[in-house]
């Protein structure tokens, strides 16, 4: 189980409070699809993903991004219990969606980068390190029930 | 995933904008790497890794110069970076996974300092550029 110090938890929680989940979620997922185009394989039914502007403006991408980041908000609330928090989602991503867990790491890195663009002042190396730990732990939790 | 003409132009343009600050950003990227990925510190037991360290700053300058050389040789990275690759493989014996970690922290640093320039397309171009650099650096591993 990953242990977060009080400072790490504070760094995560205080930045999360400032995040516009709808806006950031859409941007995170959009960037994933632009920067790592093979990830589009999971979104054949999302319509036009043919260019950067098509992807970033795509309403399905924005909606799904919001859903994903809202779920990530759960991680912030349960930093001491990520494996149980994401157990069901882990099974879903394995059995129903067949997503390679490598993608969770890629998405985690997109979250970091989008946070850096939105919160230049707050995103110190220490804050980044706490968020890096959280996204890695969430990626592990989501991969935990794979078989 | 070859860099297109547009992607090369984007990377060169951003590098020109960074100007003489490349060293500052490379140093920040190193500091971020050591904090976010503590395993990377195992390659620097001889360094003072406290924030503001002169050794880290000097090393940041070396990394910056190498990246600037890479930007100037986008058409032939393996040749341009061969000596560095040899150094990292034979002498320093760095596991190549660490190059990716530094690359990621460099992207975070640039995103933080140039949010207005860091569009998804620019992000994608930089990601591609860095993966080519990493590939060239790892090429001596055989």
From TrEMBL, chain A:
The protein's name: Hemoglobin subunit beta-A/B
Record family assignment: Belongs to the globin family.
Keywords: Heme, Iron, Metal-binding, Oxygen transport, Phosphoprotein, Transport
Globin domain location: 3-147
Pfam families linked to this entry: Globin
Keyword Thylakoid: no
Encoding gene, per UniProt annotation: HBB
Subunit comment: Heterotetramer of two alpha chains and two beta chains.
CDD domains: Hb-beta-like
From TrEMBL, chain B:
Pfam families linked: Globin
Iron in keyword set: yes
PROSITE patterns the UniProt entry points to: GLOBIN (PS01033)
Keyword Transport: yes
Stored CDD domains: Hb-alpha-like
Keywords assigned: Heme, Iron, Metal-binding, Oxygen transport, Phosphoprotein, Transport
Globin domain segment(s): 2-142
Oligomeric form and interacting partners: Heterotetramer of two alpha chains and two beta chains.
Summary of the function given for this chain in its UniProt record: Hemopressin acts as an antagonist peptide of the cannabinoid receptor CNR1. Hemopressin-binding efficiently blocks cannabinoid receptor CNR1 and subsequent signaling.
Similarity annotation: Belongs to the globin family.
Protein's name according to its UniProt entry: Hemoglobin subunit alpha
Gene responsible for this protein: HBQ1
């Amino acid at each position: 189980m990953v242990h977060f110090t009080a400072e790490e938890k504070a760094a995560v929680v205080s930045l999360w409070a400032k995040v516009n989940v709808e806006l950031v979620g859409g941007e995170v997922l959009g960037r994933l699809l632009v920067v790592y185009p093979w990830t589009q394989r999971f979104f054949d039914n999302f319509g036009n993903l043919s260019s950067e502007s098509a992807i970033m403006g795509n309403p399905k991408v924005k909606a799904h991004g919001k859903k994903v980041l809202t779920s990530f908000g759960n991680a912030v609330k349960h930093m001491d219990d990520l494996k149980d928090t994401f157990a069901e989602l882990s099974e879903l991503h394995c059995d129903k969606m067949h997503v390679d867990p490598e993608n969770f790491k890629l998405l985690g890195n997109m979250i970091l980068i989008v946070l850096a663009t939105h919160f230049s002042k707050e995103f110190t190396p220490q804050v980044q390190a706490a968020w890096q730990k959280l996204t890695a732990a969430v990626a592990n939790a989501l991969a935990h029930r794979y078989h | 995933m070859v860099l297109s003409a547009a992607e090369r132009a984007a990377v060169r343009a951003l590098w020109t904008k960074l100007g003489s600050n490349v060293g500052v950003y490379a140093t920040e990227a190193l500091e971020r790497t050591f904090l976010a990925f503590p395993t990377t510190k195992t390659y620097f037991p001889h360094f003072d890794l406290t924030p503001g360290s002169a050794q880290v700053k000097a090393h940041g300058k070396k990394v910056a110069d190498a990246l600037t050389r890479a930007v100037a040789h986008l058409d032939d990275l393996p040749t341009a970076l061969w000596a560095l690759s040899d150094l990292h493989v034979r002498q320093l014996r760095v596991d190549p996974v660490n190059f990716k970690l530094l690359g990621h922290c460099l992207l975070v640093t640039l995103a933080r300092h140039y949010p207005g320039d860091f569009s998804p397309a620019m992000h994608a171009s930089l990601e591609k550029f860095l993966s080519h650099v990493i590939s060239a650096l790892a090429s001596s591993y055989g």
